[in-house]
Structure formats: structure tokens, C-alpha cells
Write a structure and sequence with these properties.
Layout: H1 12-25, H2 29-51, H3 56-63, H4 67-94
Helix pairs in contact: 1-2, 2-3, 3-4
Length: 95
């Protein structure tokens, strides 16, 4: 797997959180940031590719992620959509 160095500027609140997590996990801040960035990007990839119709098995292959993790991401997406639908219903009832 190839890798590339990139420079990013992050808001202070995120830097403080990463610093706190790096101390708690006894890891360099860069490793903690890399972990969170990778997790977020993989979740975005899974959701985007799932919406395009890829199978769960193919999603796992494309993102180098276990099927269990794919299912967890998709389950979270479903729960998030249900929460949004409920909030919209409540707003409509109030109108």
C-alpha cells in the first residue's frame, strides 16, 4: 500500500481533542489523527459505494474493511436516516 504525506490545518478544538486522545492512548498525535481520518474516509466510501449499488462483499474488498464493519457502518446510516425522518415528522406536526 502506497502512502503520501499531506499537510492539513485543523481547528483548535480538534487539535486539542487529538492531543488529549494521543496522551490517553500513548500514541503520537499524527497516529491518532490518521486513525480518525481513515475511519471517516472509509465510512464515506462505504456509504457512497453502497448508494451506487455495490454489494456488501464488494464494499469490503474495495475498502479493505471487514463485512462486520461494513454492516456496522450501514446500520449506523439507517439509524441516522430514521432519526432525521422522525425529526422532520415532528417539525411538520408543529407547523
Amino acid at each position: 500500500m502506497m502512502s503520501e504525506n499531506i499537510n492539513v490545518t485543523l481547528p483548535d478544538n480538534i487539535v486539542k481533542y487529538l492531543h488529549m486522545k494521543s496522551k490517553a492512548e500513548y500514541l503520537p498525535m499524527s497516529a491518532v489523527a490518521r486513525k480518525y481520518i481513515a475511519k471517516g474516509v472509509v465510512e464515506e466510501m462505504v456509504i457512497e459505494y453502497y448508494k451506487q449499488g455495490f454489494s456488501i462483499k464488494k464494499l469490503a474488498e474495495m475498502t479493505d474493511t471487514s463485512i462486520a464493519q461494513i454492516m456496522q457502518i450501514l446500520r449506523g446510516l439507517n439509524e441516522e436516516l430514521e432519526d432525521i425522518d422522525q425529526e422532520l415528522s415532528e417539525i411538520e406536526e408543529m407547523s
